[in-house]
Amino acid sequence: MGDPNLxxxxxxxxxxxxxxxxxxxxxxxxxxxxxxxxxxxxxRALAPERLLVxxxxxxxxxxxxxxxxxxxxxxxxxxxxxxxxxxxxxxxEGFAGDVLVFYGDHPLTSAETLQQLVDHKARTGxxxxxxxxxxxxxxxxxxxxxxxxxxxxEVTDATPEELTLREGNTGIYLMGVELLAKAVSxxxxxxxxxxxxxxxxIAHARAEGLRVEAVKMADAIEAQGxxxxxxxxxxxxxxxxxxxxxxxxxxxxxxxxxxxxxxTDVAIGRDTRIDPGVVITAGSRLGEGVHVKPHCVxxxxxxxxxxxxxxxxxxxxxxxxxxxxxxxxxxxxxNSRLADGVxxxxxxxxxxxxxxxxxxxxxxxxxxxxxWDAKHRTTVGPRTRIGCNVNLVAPLELEPDAFxxxxxxxxxxxxxxxxxxxxxxxxxxxxxxxxxKNKGTAKRDPGSESG
Length: 451
Description:
Layout: E1 3-12, E2 29-30, E3 33-34, H1 37-45, E4 48-55, H2 59-65, E5 71-74, H3 81-88, E6 98-103, H4 111-124, E7 128-133, E8 139-143, E9 149-154, E10 168-176, H5 177-185, H6 200-207, E11 212-216, H7 229-249, E12 253-254, E13 261-262, E14 267-268, E15 273-274, E16 279-280, E17 285-286, E18 291-292, E19 297-298, E20 302-303, E21 308-309, E22 314-315, E23 320-321, E24 326-329, E25 332-334, E26 337-338, E27 343-346, E28 349-351, E29 353-355, E30 360-361, E31 366-368, E32 378-380, E33 385-386, E34 391-393, E35 396-398, E36 403-404, E37 409-410, E38 419-420, H8 432-444
Parallel strand pairs: 1-4, 1-6, 4-5, 7-11, 12-15, 13-16, 14-17, 15-18, 16-19, 17-20, 18-21, 19-22, 20-23, 21-24, 22-25, 23-26, 24-27, 25-28, 26-29, 27-30, 29-32, 30-33, 31-34, 32-35, 33-36, 34-37, 36-38
Antiparallel strand pairs: 2-3, 6-10, 7-10, 8-9
């Protein structure tokens, strides 16, 4: 049930020129999710009656990426944050509640903090409420004796006394839709950039004699925006930290969270252990009691309970591992289904395969799934034993309880209880080492050379 008295406008139309990128800033990923996905998720958690996202650069790509998650308004000409709100407001015709305005490039602002702002405004009855940061920002917040906001002063215009202020303006505001519409209609572009600044609505409210309440964020990191690649790295590191904290609270062990990289849209069962250097990408699902050893990469894969993987193993997208599967060092699995108890302990490749319960792969065994034109699947029956250095040339089926001898290249089906052998019988050449040595000596004998 949505809040009929709340609408949200997320501003995401900027050019993002400092990213120096061929794609719009808000589609760059943070821990496996596009940047804009975080503000949209935070806004949706408030259950607003309306959620508008103002888009500009690469508008079609952004709308496609978040189709069904919000309403979109296109700001064809980017003339500042105030102008973006002007463009969005006609879409709210008929809405009479409060409007929360915040930014699509602020991924760390939490839904809990936004809810505090909404609750504070409702509790105090103030016409305007804003979020502030517990650190100085380009706009400094000057409070009055009663604790309300008197004004916002830019650092470049601040007095020495004002420069000692430790509270910054985040630009996140909440006010009634009529007041917001009136305030943005009176903005002017008489500034160095020639833009309409949303920040000026606070000065408008104070000029009208209206009280402005402020809620200070508990953590300054929530005010961190993304303007360039360095900012992107900073917020990504923080999101990985948050993800690890979340899963540790759910009963997952991280040996060293600072060197583990778990994307946001991942699920992990309790009593799982994640070792250093592990990367787990969005869409992956890990069961309970899993052990991911150091330097493994798991991409969009499903793991059952009690799976052991690594060290230095790679699960590529589409891999599904049943309960108790064991994948060892330098093993790669791709687009394959491995039933319960399958083992591949080292130096193997299993691609485009369906592997039955309890089957095992010896060291260096691989599925040969590509014929230069198409990929083909391999079926390995339950309890089949595959020796070392085996090539399984797909399309191929190994029936249950089949065997493949070491060094064999298998191109035909192997029936139950049969062993596939493609190597010739071993032959030992007695005395070969001595003959080789004598041959080399003869070549170096001076008597065999002409004078």
